[in-house]
Amino acid sequence: MSVPCARIVPVVLLLVLAVVGILLLVVPARDVEVPPEHMYGIVLDAGSSHTSVYIYKWPADKQNGTGIVTQHSECQAKGGGISSYAGVRGAAAGSLTECLDQAVKVIPTSRHRQTPIHLGATAGMRLLKKVNATESDRLLKEVENKLRSYPFIFKEAAILSGQQEGAYGWVTVNYLLENFVKYGFVGRWLNPGRQMIGALDLGGASTQITFETSERVENDNNSMNLTLYGQTYRLYTQSFLCYGQEEFLRKLLAHLITTQGVKTYISHPCYPKEFNTSIKLGKDVFDSPCTKHNRPAQFSPEKSVTLVGTGDYQSCLDNVKKIFNFNDCSYSKCSFNGVFQPSVKGSFMAFSAYYFSHRYINTLTNMHITSPRQMEEAIQLICNMTLSEITEKTKQIKKYTKNVCAVSNFIKVLLTEGYHFDSLSFPSISFEKTAGGAAVGWALGYMLSLSNMVPAESPGVIKSLPYGPWFCILFLFLILLITALGYLLMTYRSTTNKEGMV
Ligand SMILES: *[C@@H]1O[C@H](CO)[C@@H](O)[C@H](O)[C@H]1NC(C)=O
Ligand SMILES: *[C@@H]1O[C@H](CO)[C@@H](O)[C@H](O)[C@H]1NC(C)=O
Ligand SMILES: *[C@@H]1O[C@H](CO)[C@@H](O)[C@H](O)[C@H]1NC(C)=O
Ligand SMILES: *[C@@H]1O[C@H](CO)[C@@H](O)[C@H](O)[C@H]1NC(C)=O
Ligand SMILES: *[C@@H]1O[C@H](CO)[C@@H](O)[C@H](O)[C@H]1NC(C)=O
Ligand SMILES: *[C@@H]1O[C@H](CO)[C@@H](O)[C@H](O)[C@H]1NC(C)=O
């Protein structure tokens, strides 16, 4: 080679510099770190139908930053939600034993006394509190004493409000997607201008919708300003009590019974054809505070009626719509039941029961649902299926399979006619169970908020490098890289050309 080293060496150095610079800017920090020692946190999600226990972990030397906290393990408590043990002393606490004992095992002993434990109860307990506040207080105290009997740091056992539940779900989604803070090898920086993702949660007793909006929120009860890492997010949030999956199904039964009159056979258009089942008027329908108001005049809770499935898509849909009030609205616009809602904007993540129903619809019809029209076609097919067809394809127990037609219609009406997702905005909903290895729900956002791990102010350790400058620097390094490569290539070619001529 006749090319002088003096000409090549500085260019090679520039090339190396450019590659290193680009790597520093784009490679996520976590991939190259050695696993450090961890800290742990426990959240009990005391839902209306069951309790889930989540254990989270994060590197012991860091805690403020998104993407740092991950899910370590998860445990589903056997039996019903804590509210289902109303009136039975000790049973709610007892139902948690297995999962708490497991937490003791999976968290290293040396960390037990540094591990915070929180219990958040949702709509099941909100409903019980309406019916019997003494009993809901007693239950909370009972589970609190249970949590205190373990070697962890007890933080709280509380009933979350609908707004809190919605907002914590939103925090979880955007934290897991690293929308607040961006990571690079040299550190983390804020991520202003990033589109936040809205959260759609469907539980057993309530459903939540939460998203960032720039429109005026006409009812203060739906407005929440969250300041995280020095950025303020204006959120719209609404929780519909009694519009969770289980309570909706109860409301539908109550509606069918009151419109047809209390008689031995009640036809149920959403149940599969040739399926019938017997229910008790009290326990299965009218005992809930969600249905109490339309109890029939001569009502005896022990009376049974037989529901006879007719598998009639159109009649099912018509009855499902009756559970919503789309007419009364004292604001400029509403979702339903007179509740204000700005237009849905941006992308959404739909989780919990939304995810499972969406999966059933896909499994049953082999259709990939991306529009309301497709969803309607899929539901028509599902409502026409027999119980054995559904059971065969989903491998699920009767409790779920008999309700797929009703729940699918409910979700479709809720999303399209309730929240006003249309053929343009519907595809922006993604149905997920997990993100970044953690279950999507309010639990993570709740722990992060209570332990100040998503601080309001922008902590000093985080380098505030806005997206614009970050991109400029990346662009400069890329120019450098291309120039250096180009120069080397030209030098190489002129050298080989000269050699060829020799
Ligand atoms: C995290 O942020 C909170 C609030 O800003 C602060 O009190 C705490 O010391 C921070 N922790 C770490 C490890 O930086
Ligand atoms: C509420 O629960 C308590 C038990 O904590 C019970 O003694 C009382 O009768 C209940 N009240 C009502 C109205 O059901
Ligand atoms: C806001 O919520 C409170 C408590 O639930 C309620 O009393 C009040 O009427 C609500 N305000 C509006 C404007 O809806
Ligand atoms: C949130 O901030 C906006 C203006 O930035 C204000 O109009 C609204 O009332 C605030 N909401 C709450 C609940 O503080
Ligand atoms: C309900 O089902 C049972 C057995 O599954 C059957 O004997 C009965 O005739 C059915 N009743 C109606 C009204 O379809
Ligand atoms: C429902 O299924 C039956 C056969 O099980 C079929 O004859 C009928 O055409 C189907 N109806 C619709 C609307 O798909």
UniProtKB/TrEMBL annotation:
Keywords: ATP-binding, Hydrolase, Membrane, Nucleotide-binding, Signal, Transmembrane, Transmembrane helix. Pfam families: GDA1_CD39 (PF01150). Residues 1-29 form the signal peptide. GO terms for cellular component: plasma membrane. The active site is at residue 165. Belongs to the GDA1/CD39 NTPase family. This is Ectonucleoside triphosphate diphosphohydrolase 2. It comes from Channa striata (Snakehead murrel).
